[in-house]
Structures are given as C-alpha cells and as structure tokens.
Amino acid sequence: MTRPSPRTVRRLIGLAVLVLWEAVPRLGILPELFVPPLTKTLAVLWSDRLIYFGGLMVTLYEVFFAMLIACGAGIALGAVVGGVAVVRNLMLPVVSSLYAIPIVILYPIFTAWFGIGSESKIAFAGVYGFFPVMLSTAAGIRTIDEQYLLAARSMGASLPQLITRVIIPAAIPTVLAGLRLGGALTIIGVVVSEMLTSASGIGYLVTINRTILDSPRVFAAIIVVLLLSIAFDLAVRAIERRTMAWQTAGRRVASSEDVRAARMPAPAAA
Amino acid sequence: MQPMAKLKPQPETTRANAVEVTGVSHIYHGRDGAVPALTDIDMTVPAGRFTVIVGPSGCGKTSLLMMLAGLRTPTSGTILCDGRPIPSPDPQRVGVVFQEASLYPWLTALDNVEFPLALKGAPRSERRERAQAMLKLVGLGSFGGRYPHELSGGMKQRVSIARGLVQGPPVLLMDEPFAALDEQTRMTMGHELLRIWDETNKTVVFITHSLTEAVYLADEVLVMSARPGRIIDRVAVDLPRPRTYQMMATDKFGQLRERIWQQIRAKE
Q: Of the CATH numbers 1.10.10.10, 3.40.50.300, 1.10.1330.10, 3.20.20.105, which one belongs to the domain with range B16-93+171-268?
C-alpha cells in the first residue's frame, strides 16, 4: 500500500473539519451559540446573500484603496530607503521600531480624523499594510548582489538602465514577498477596523450579529472573509508564477510550496 | 595602391600595445584615512598577448583590473586601452569577466549574453544572432534557453566569457574567473579559454591566485607585492603553444612556478 500524498491528506483533513463543523453542534457536543452547524450557516449566508454581498463590496472597495496606498507608498519609500544610504540610516531604525507597535491602537485617532466611513478604514489599513511592503522593498534593494551592478556597469549600463534592467528584476522576489504579507495585513486592517467602528462592511456584519448573539450570521460573515483571503492568496500566487518563471524553470518537480519557502526573504546575511 | 591601404580601417595606434599603464597609483580613502592600494604600476600588454597577474590577497589586483575596465579612476598615472584613455566602461573596447555569479538569474543564458547589446539598443534579430554565435564559440550553442541555475559552474563561466566577448572588444579582462570551480573543471576551462583566445586573437589580462593556472595560460606573468601593490617581477613564459597538460610536469614549468612562488612568499 502506498502512502497517501500530502495533497490527499490535506483534503481529507479539510473534509473532516467540515464534517465536524456540522456534527459537533448537531450532536450537542458544543452549543449552537458557540458553533452553529455548517448547513445552518450556509443557509443564512444564502438567504441574506444581498446583505453579505453588499458588505463584501464595501470591504473590497476599502481593501482596494488601502492596498493601493500600502503597495504604492511602501514600494516608493522602500526603494528610497533601500537605495539611498543616508535615508536608510536615518529612517530604518525608526521604521523598524514602529513596525513593532500594535498600530490598531491608533485606529481611534483615524476615526477622529477621517470619520467612521470608508476613509478611516482605508487610511488605517493602508498604514497597517505599508510597513512590511516598505521593509521588504528596502531589504530587496539593499541586498542586491554588488556583482550584478558592477557587471552591468562594465557593460556600459547607465543609471536608468541599472534601475530598470538590474535593480528592479533583482528585487522582485523580495518585494513580492512583502506585497503578499502587506496585502494580507491590509485585509486584516480593513476587517478589524470595520469591526471596531463602522456602519458597513463584512467586519461590521460580524460585530452587529455578535451583539445580538446571532451565531449563524457571525459565522457566515467569517466564511466571506475566509473566501476573500483565499482569493487574495490565489491572486498573489498567480502573479508570482508569472513574474518568477525563471526561478522555477527546470524545477517543476518541486512543489510550489517548496519554491515559495525557498523564496522567503532571508535574514540580512549578505 | 597606396590609397587602397588607407581605405582599410586602421586603428589609430599601430595596435602594438592593447593595454598601456604608466605610473599608475591608487589611493583608497577608507575609514582609516588614505590607504595606498597601488603604487607606480607600469605595464604594457602587446595586442593578442595573454598576460596573467598574480599576487597575494588584497594586493590591489582587482583594483588594477577595475581601472583597466574604466570602472575606477586611478589617483595618478595614465591608462590606455586600445590606444585611448578609458574614463568610463566601454564594452566595445574592453570586455570583463568576473569571478562568479555575475550572470543575471532572471535571464536565460542567451538573454544574458545579449544583455550588453540590449543596453546599446541593438535590433533584436542582430542581438540574437551575435549572442548565439558567441554561445557557440564557448561551446554552449544548444544551452541558450537555460537559466543560470540550470547550468554548472563551468558552464556559467562560459556564458560569462561569451557575454564579455559579444561586443567584439579587442581586450578581455578576467578577474579570477575560475576561482570558484573545482580543480578538474578549472583545468578544462583554462584549456577552453586558450582555445577561444586562439580563435579570436583577443588580448587577455587575467587575474588568478593559482600559480599553476598562471604559468599554464600566460605569455607573461606579472607578480605583485602585498599592499601597497607594486609589480615586483615580470616572468616571461616561453613554453610553446598550444599548451598541453603534459607541460605541467616539465622542469621548465616547475622552475617558472617556483620563481613566482618565491617572489610572492618573500613578501608575505
């Protein structure tokens, strides 16, 4: 008998979780208030689909602009911090320390400045996702092998050519790792801020239904957030596959997980 | 028939010397103030010759090579490459091959060789053709589609050589190109390099730590002292060409190698 592949095992575990989700409350092992059965949750999700769809649209709208801020500002500032030694020495220690602060404590200030509408969520989640993008962009640029630049100069590359043909392609893997993390944090930032203070969005649906102890509707909202995160992850993977074909070429035997693990930003060993 | 001769594009210099270095010194401004890295270097490399520079670590060999490539400016003295000063890199006059890992991992072997042509904005078809010809010259004609990580160390250095030669420079500078290779591959690559050199009539300036490699490859070996680097000996290698592995076992080879070794050891 052959050992089942990891993929098969993973699917079986997933299936088991779904079965338990249904069985545990039905059998009375846990009260339905704690865990409503899967079918009940899905039924609510379907009957309230317009509400959830509306909430998802609000959340998506906020996530989109927050990611624009996080990625745009993160890449731009990260490039400056990584590329210019003076700025790096000035800013990197500060930014690294800021990164450790639970930024969510600033959210009340954001609501004071931007109100309780989408603007405060966009601003908060944008800042939340900004740090990993910026730090990994800076690391990606700073850790480029000097030899790449020297070789390019010996071949007569101008500064713009150095940037577009060497620095950017060399930094892409690290920057993408940052975008992945930053993007995930942006989704978290939006949902958390919707849960704290707001009048719309998926996070709001979680909070409002929790206060009235409507567990199936809370879980339905959680399912929507899960789907949103999974969709984001799939999108990032697709981008990675397109931009980094060179890393996997000839290594198709390796699973995508192996390749992704190998690509995690290394500690500044260089 | 005099006018006919004039029509032929003759280089300004009579091409007697491909590289001329006169009184070059380099002072490196580091954390501890000014450190003299090179003092009073004079060297000439006649066109088509193979010159090897050896010396202890940190003697400024690489600095010298950077200056020959136009990547660094000497503090004093003059450097002429192909008869003209080289204030900035000029891949049509001087090609450079580095120690290792200077191929771009996101480009295929063929794209790596095309890279300098792409910088110049050469048309795609011409780039392809010339890069393919260079890969063929270095024995990798059918490996153009591979990425660097799919090539062995020796193959990568072949691609680097192809890239250094693709713009057709008369001078090829090599900074310990085979240092990261295992002994067997290193010997093979040395032999291959001599074949390529013979086919293309390039002038080569080659830096190495290996005395065997130096004697095996060179027409002339320049021995440098420890920092500040000076040229302390010039050893003409009058072994016949083409060189063979058997020559390494000869007394002549041993004597040349020993002479260089004594120079380097005495200064350490």
A: 3.40.50.300
